[in-house]
Amino acid sequence: MRRLRKADFTGRWLFWGLVASLLVACATTPENRLDPETAVHDAAKLQKIGESHLAAGNYAIALKYLTAAEAKGHDTPELYYDLALAYRGRGFTEQALVYLRKAISLRPDYPEAHNALGALLAEKGLIDEAIREFTTALNDPFYETPHYAAYNLGNLYYRQGNYTKAEEYFRQALQLAPNYAQAHLQLGRVLENRGDKKGAFSEYKDAVAYAPQWAEAHFHYGRLCNHFGDHVCARYSFEQVIKLAPESEMATAARNYLKQLGATYPGGIGQ
């Protein structure tokens, strides 16, 4: 059974991984519109259908199929991991924790589950336990996406104000995945907090290059473009923020920057 991965570019803990090979999109087939208790009798097939809904973000439907698979005695670590993802997607953190621990109890060398467990523990403020889980994932030589665990460790230390450790782990994440935009952005924040605006500018620039549709990257890049006097660059990035996330607080701040720059923008910016 392939492990499900899903992208998260929101700046939260990276509970999911990056989509490497999306499972077959079954959501439009007649079979998927039927009751999982009566339509499908094979537990592995139920899990596969549940995973397709999970990949599409249909968490409640995914849970119907995944719990049906569990009811048929399909007690694999991969199924428990899928159930944890689905419960987390629905906002049921405690159930997600239970299933992640079940997955790890069956398969201690399950780095994706360790990383996900670390993310939930970090959300609950259990920092030491979260560090242990992230580190376990990062140190697993068979973990296909260790940069997520390195990022999570960096983000944890960043939130604690430990910029030295945060920089160490963000740089490690980038060694593992040089085009990892989120790590570039967070490293930029670390460097800016340490007074290295030129270094931060370079990281924000890379974040925009690798994720040109990411409003947050444009916002921070625009700020430092403005700081260094490149008003053309600043104007473009702030306009991108407004285009990509028009109702966000960043867009409001971007409009204010544009007004200060004397820019004009559809809707009355700068007028």
Write the layout of secondary structure elements.
Layout lengths: L35 H4 L3 H13 L3 H13 L5 H13 L3 H14 L4 H13 L3 H12 L7 H15 L2 H14 L4 H13 L3 H14 L4 H13 L3 H14 L4 H12 L11
Question: Would you kindly provide a written description of the structure presented here, covering whatever features stand out?
Answer:
It comes from Thermodesulforhabdus norvegica. The protein is mainly α. The chain is 65% helix and 0% strand. The protein contains 14 helices and no strands. The protein has helices at residues 36-39, 43-55, 59-71, 77-89, 93-106, 111-123, 127-138, 146-160, 163-176, 181-193, 197-210, 215-227, 231-244, 249-260. It is elongated. Mean pLDDT is 87; it is low at 1-11, 16-32 and 264-271.
Major sheet attributes: none
What distance separates the N and C termini?
A: 58 Å
- Counted by DSSP, the helix tally is 14
Q: How would you sum up the global shape? A: elongated
Give the number of DSSP strands. 0
Radius of gyration: 21 Å
The assigned structural class equals mainly alpha
What percent strand?
A: under 5%
The average pLDDT value, as a whole number, equals: 87
Which runs of at least 5 residues are low in confidence (pLDDT < 50)? Answer: 1-11, 16-32, 264-271
